[in-house]
Design a protein that fits this description.
It is a single chain. The chain has 478 residues and is α+β, with helices and mostly antiparallel strands. Helix content is 21%, strand content 37%. Strands 27-24-28-31-29-30 form a 6-stranded mixed sheet, with helices on both faces. Strands 1-4-5-12-11 form a 5-stranded antiparallel sheet. Strands 6-7-8-9-10 form a 5-stranded antiparallel sheet, with helices on one face. It binds zinc ion. This is N-acetylmuramoyl-L-alanine amidase LytC. One of its GO terms (molecular function) is N-acetylmuramoyl-L-alanine amidase activity.
């Protein structure tokens, strides 16, 4: 017992946590008051176990030996392990963006992730610093304070002016607030968004009705479902979770792949690299391939890099301020290609050289077939008009973490934008490429000033220079 307590205290000192008393937590329209303040770890809100138990009404079990928290409810069973980002939901494995932790002898669970795993809608309102979890099937009810007669304002009928593709899903652009209910249907798996008091009035820059994708999103359809109701249906090629984040009048729908229907890429799944020192071994993995002697990049004669300009051809990527993502990514990729071609250390392969459309699978397959040492995909972000900044992604199950951190450091200096940090994601091209792979999001095409900068040739050259510097630093140190 004494040993156990010692261990727990030991763990507690490792976690960079700060209490976050000013964050408001809401569950199905009810504000949660917690005697123990939530904690912030890596920008994520973690709540004490009893919030999940009492406020969400879940059954919570704890096995101290295996450090395992089991949550049952909403006809789901979720298993979480302290300090592990791997979670199990009804037997299948998911990666969380932050792990459960023990702080001062108390177990804290990631609020947002638990809600998502339970199939709840998760909304973040940055103005009031509130996280809202809502049961997907339950209606949001604004409860009037007792004794006060609620006068329901007559809601204006909103025009849906754009259904825009974003990196992680779609953005619904409206000219007034819309009340959306989002839920899932199966056979085939779909995410359905019903917006009340809304009319379709689409302008340029929307996805076409019935447009096909080759990601976890198979196709998107939309219709004026009822005189004042717009329905958007996203058909999935497998299983996915989603979040809806309101932003002004707009709604951001982010879709995260859980599993893909069995139509695997022609190459095997990513090779699992040994766990790095700060990540615990994460359970079952694919059988390890025959060991290949690892030659440090710094000592190699040639480092082969596959460079991917995001989107292209029929896929414009995000659009905004008169620009298309596919043109900006190509402009930057071509400038970076020039630098790499003039450096005898590198052998360059590009996924596209012009306005063509290789599928995501084509791009990942090319990198694997070429047995590239490094992969980089260049993208431009989209979001609400006020969103700005630079971010870099790597796949949590891959080997791109150091590469992402080093390139991001250089890129940020070139863009001079808000640091939106390095994150993990399941984007296809970084998930299914076997070498260290990253995806950079230079800035936001939907922000007028960032769009103007990114269109500028000198700025593009600066970005290319910084990516080149990042690649070189990574190669020299790995
Ligand atoms: Zn993109």
């Amino acid at each position: 017992m004494g040993m156990c307590l010692f261990l727990l205290l030991g763990l507690a000192s490792v976690v960079q946590a700060a209490s976050a008393p000013d964050i408001q937590l809401w569950i199905n329209g009810k504000k949660i008051s917690s005697a123990v303040p939530p904690q912030m770890v890596n920008d994520r809100t973690l709540v004490p176990v009893y919030v999940v138990k009492d406020a969400m009404g879940m059954n919570v079990g704890w096995d101290s030996k295996s450090q395992r928290v089991t949550i049952t409810g909403n006809s789901k069973k979720i298993e979480l392990v302290i300090n592990s980002k791997k979670a199990k939901i009804d037997g299948s494995t998911r990666t969380l963006d932050t792990a459960p932790v023990i702080i001062s002898d108390r177990t804290f669970l990631p609020f947002r992730s638990v809600g998502e795993l339970l199939g709840m809608n998760v909304d973040w309102d940055s103005k009031t610093k509130s996280v809202h979890l809502t049961n997907a099937t339950s209606e949001k009810v604004d409860k009037p304070t007792s004794g006060v007669t609620a006068v329901k304002p007559i809601a204006k009928v909103a025009s849906i002016t754009k259904i825009q593709q974003t990196e992680q899903g779609f953005m619904i652009v409206a000219d007034a607030k819309v009340d959306a209910k989002t839920f899932t249907m199966s056979g085939p798996n779909r995410i359905v968004m019903d917006m009340d008091k809304a009319k379709l009035n689409l302008k340029n820059g929307s996805v076409t009705n019935g447009q096909q994708f080759d990601t976890i999103i198979k196709t998107v359809r939309y219709s004026q479902f009822a005189p004042e109701q717009v329905r958007v249906v996203i058909e999935l090629d497998g299983k996915a979770s989603y979040t809806v984040t309101p932003s002004g009048n707009n709604l951001q729908l982010a879709i995260t792949e859980t599993s893909r229907n069995p139509k695997p890429p022609t190459t095997p799944p990513p090779v699992v690299t040994p766990p790095t020192k700060d990540e615990p071994d994460q359970g079952t993995v694919e059988p390890a391939p025959a060991p290949v002697p690892i030659v440090p990049l710094a000592t190699k004669d040639k480092v082969k890099i596959v460079l991917d300009a995001g989107h292209g051809g029929k896929d414009s990527g995000a659009v905004g301020n008169g620009l298309q993502e596919k043109d900006l990514t190509l402009g930057m990729a071509q400038k970076l290609a020039e630098l790499l071609r003039n450096d005898s250390k590198f052998e360059l392969v590009m996924t596209r050289e012009g306005d063509t459309y290789p599928t995501l699978q084509d791009r990942a397959n090319l990198a694997n077939k070429e047995q590239a040492d490094l992969f980089m995909s260049i993208h431009i972000n989209s979001g609400p008009a006020t969103a700005t900044g630079t971010e870099t992604y790597y796949y949590a199950g891959g080997s791109g973490k150091d590469y992402a951190n080093i390139v991001h450091k250089h890129l940020l200096k070139a863009t001079g934008s808000l640091d939106r940090k390095v994150h993990t994601a399941n984007f296809y091209v970084i998930k299914y490429t076997k070498m260290p792979s990253i995806l950079v999001e230079i800035g936001f095409i939907t922000n007028a000033s960032e769009a103007a900068k990114m269109k500028d040739e000198d700025f593009q050259q600066g970005v290319a220079d910084s990516l080149y510097a990042g690649i070189k630093e990574y190669v020299n140190t790995h």
